[in-house]
Each structure stands twice: as structure tokens, then as C-alpha cells.
Amino acid sequence: MTKHLGDASVKFINPPSIISAAAVVGPKEGEGPLAPLFDKISEDILFEKDTWEQAESELMRQTVELCIQKSGLAAKDVNYIFAGDLLNQNSGSVYGARSFERPFFGLFGACSAMGMAMSLGAMLIDGGFANYIVANASSHFCGAEKTFRFPLELGTQRAPTASWTVTGDGAVMLSSNGRGPYVTSATTGAIVDLGQKDVNNMGAAMVPAAADVIAKHFRDLSLPHDYYDVIATGDLGMYGLQLLKQLLAQDGFTATDRLNDCGLLIYDTEKQDVHAGGSGCGCSAAVFAAHYMKQLRDGTIKKILFVPTGALHSVVTIQQGESIPGIAHAVAVES
Amino acid sequence: MVKKMDIFWAFVIGGAICVLGQLLIDLTKLTPARVLVFFVVAGCVLGGLGVYERLVDFAGAGATVPLPGFGNLLARGVKEAVDERGLIGVLTGGFTAMAGGVTIAVVFGYFSALVSSPGMKE
Amino acid sequence: MTAKNYEKLVKEASPKSAVVLNSAKAFLVGGAICAVAQVLYSRIEAMGFSREDTGIMVAGILIVTAILLTALRIYDKIAKFAGAGTIVPITGFANSIAAPAIEHKNEGLVLGVGAKMFAIAGPVIVYGTVTSVIVGLIYYFVR
After folding, report:
1. Global pTM?
2. Exposure pattern of C121-142 as b/e (b: 16+ CB <10 Å)?
3. How high is the pLDDT of residue B31?
């Protein structure tokens, strides 16, 4: 029996269970509305290290360690770690995972990393190639500024459509057995580029990819549009989410009221001056691991389509005049 | 003797040049780095034409402190050097004129890096 | 959906920068920096220094102040309010030298501080120098 459905989806026959989740964040996220749900809030933006790169690795290490701890397993029980981040050559994930000495796949999908990690992890488990897999994604505000924008002490103004990179990490432990919530299906996004070039409006660059993968998911699995209680995109921000609703509605999608964006949940966008909202690999990962996992467990929601979104440009390609390619991966989780 | 009108015009013209920069950043796709380059080149060209000196006579620091003033300083320097040394002055004038400012910025920038480290934005 | 249609949608959905407010703030702060410089200029020149030396001293005071504020992590906070008002004056040039030097000190004193110091200010010096040579050449032939 084939598990591949339609154009770009897979449906799991033995759906992997999420047996634990952990989220660690920085000080600004610790002042946001989700603060009580995070496992740990670091008051120190450097996580007691010396550089931003070390800080992100430490953030990643702590979160994965917590996730393993909460699952009741030991690090040696983990078959694979899938992890992604925004630093060059996946430094955050690589140096963070170094001390675990476990089989490691470093992923680059920009801020869609958590969607990649969960999809690939679930495929491996359903395929019988693993019993326990950690899926993880991290980002650090200062490391991202240094990598993609300007030195922190440079006097700059942010555009109203700019987003704020989340200092945070979310990890989940996928298992071949457990009592749910279960990863039931996944749709892998294609690279979609409608020619957007404004790096201060990345929500707009990623929206077409999100609309594409969401539409494909419902088509491939032949689901009614109101099947999920929530469809949570990664980091489109407030203007991006509006655009996504518009695009999907134009396409005949009827359940736009189920759409929400992790970037709008992690900060108080009125009070915290983050402009369009939160972004970064850690944004969707931490919001899923803390907020949506809690809602799935306490029954507030039963089914979620989790759609982390990524902007796949580099500083070099933008300087060469290229546009920003978008991507989004949809992962269905049901309790 | 500090004249009140000198301060007033320095404020107004200096502020106006900054507004021009703000408009370029907000309304065009120019990044701040490109705006700075534009201002220096514009100041140097206007200085070469002798136009910018008139603005300096009128607005004082309001014309010399914004970056076009830096461009004008280079133009003034290169012209003086050409007057004194001919073609060799073409090569030495600009750099000599900016030597003081750039050296101060480099030396203090260097020591600031030794003692300070970057912090979180608000 | 074509790129052109989408661009139209994006333009409608995305808010513009608060141009008037930003400009007012840039005017006030940028103007204030120039006004302070004017006071310094008059005072120093009154002590009997030449026009050139006075210019270097005023620029020096502004540059050192800006770098100090950068090192104390204050300059970027003023700039968040002032925008071009703190980018366009010579203080912005100083900030653009100190900020990358501080940011990249972890990559070492040579390739971090030394090389990255001009990551933003470098183009200003390059284009200023090239333009000055062109201006000088033309001046040499037409004077």
C-alpha cells in the first residue's frame, strides 16, 4: 500500500506519536503572552556564553536535552536528531548537537526547518527505520541580525513590515509508539517565488508558498476545508497572514477563519514593538512545542495543520539582485 | 562670539539634509549604506562645482556636519592640493582632507571594540 | 497568480513607513546635532584656531562622542527614534565604523575588528576617494 498521496503528500499508516516537547526562549519572548508555557526562559540573551553563535548552540543543546529528559529516555535511545537553524552552515544546530553524539541530520529550510524536521522524522519512523527521533529548530535574534542584517550597535530603523527574529528553540520527540498526539500526514512544499525582493517584508515573500502547500494538502488528502481546528503558519506576521487569507479565499478556500500565525502569538504585537510579528526557525518551533502541544494535550484543539514557512534567500543572492524564494511544509498533528 | 542666527541656520539646513536622507530611505528602496554613498558623492560633485561652499558660508555646521559636507571637504582638499602640487595633488588631496576625521574614527572605533561588546536591541 | 498581480496585492496589504513623523524626528535630531556643532565651531574658532583645524576638532568631538555612545549601546537606541537624523551627520559615519568593529570582535582582532570595521563605512571612503580624484582631474584641466 502506497503512503504517498496526490502531488506532494504522505499519509502515515503507523502515525508517529509526539511523546514529549520542550521550548526554551530568550528574555523578550519571556515577556510575551506565552511566557507561562515555556519550559525555560533565559534572562541572559547570551545564555551565559561569549558569542551569539555559542548562545544559539547552548539554547539548542538545552532544549534538546530537556525534550529527551521529558520523554523519559536517555540520549543514547535517540536514533536520529533532525535540526535546523538560520546561522551559516547550520552552526547553531551543529555545535548544539555536538555533545549528544547521536546520528545527526542538519537541515536548512530557513524558518521552515521545524516542518522539515517533523516531516522527515515521521517518515523515517513510519518507514520502520527508527523508533525515536528528535525534531528541533532554533533561532537567535542577535545571531540572525549579524548573519542577515547589520551589527547590533548600528543605528537603524526597522520597516513596519519587518519582523522580529525569535530567540527560541522548540523540540519534539517523535516515537513509533505512544498515546499521541500523532503526526498523521505531511505535505512537502515546493519552492515558490513570485518575485518579491524586499527583505524587510519576508512575510509577503513566503505567503505564496504557504498558500500553495495548504491548497495541495487539502487536495492530496481530499479533506474538507474545516477539517483542522487550527492551521498555524510559521512566521508570516500580521500583514502576511492577511495576504494568505486573501490568496486562499481567491482560490476558493472556505475555512480562512481557522488560519493563525505563530509569529503573532509569541509576542504582544501591541506592546512589544516587534512590528509585523515574530519570525525565525525558533518562532514556529517554540510556539508549536509550548502552545499548540498544550492545546492538543488538554483537548482545546484536536487537529492542527502546522505550516512552518521559510524564506530561502541568502545575503549574497539578494545583493546579486535575486528575489526571495519561499517555502512551507505542512505537518498534520491529531490527538 | 556665538551668533544665534548661525545656530538657527545650522539647525534648519542640517535638519533639512537629514530629512532628505530620511525620505530617500523611506520612499525609495535605497538602503542606508547607499544613501550615505549618494550623499558623499553628491557633496563631492557639488563641492567640485563650487556650489556647496556657498551653502557652507550660509549654514556653517549645518552644511559641514552631514555627509555631503564630508564629500565637499574632499573636493576642497583635492582642489587646494592641485593648486599647490599640480597632478600629484589629484592623488593626495582627497585622502589628506579626510585624514583627521577618519583617523579619529578608526582609532576610537578600534578601542571601542576592545572594551565594548554588542547588546540586544530594544 | 503572476508576480505583477501579487506585487499589487502586497502593496495594498503592507503599511507604509510613517514618512512625515520619521522626517520630523530626523529633522529635530539631525538639526540639533548640527546646531551643537555650530556652537562648538564658533567657540573653538574664537580661541584662534584656523578654519581647517577647527573643522577637524569639531568633527573629532562629534566622532568621539558618537563612538562612546555606540560602545555604551546607546547610539542605536537614539537612532531607532531619529533615523536619518543620526545616520546622515558625521556621527552616523563614526557609528558605522564602531558598530561592526564591536560586533565582530569575536572573530579576532585582525579579521574581526580590523577587516569588518569598514564593512559599512568602506563604501563611503571608496566612493568619496574616487569622486575626489575625478573632481581633482577635471579641476586640474579646467582651472
Report:
1. 0.96
2. bbbbbebbbebbbbbbeebbee
3. 85
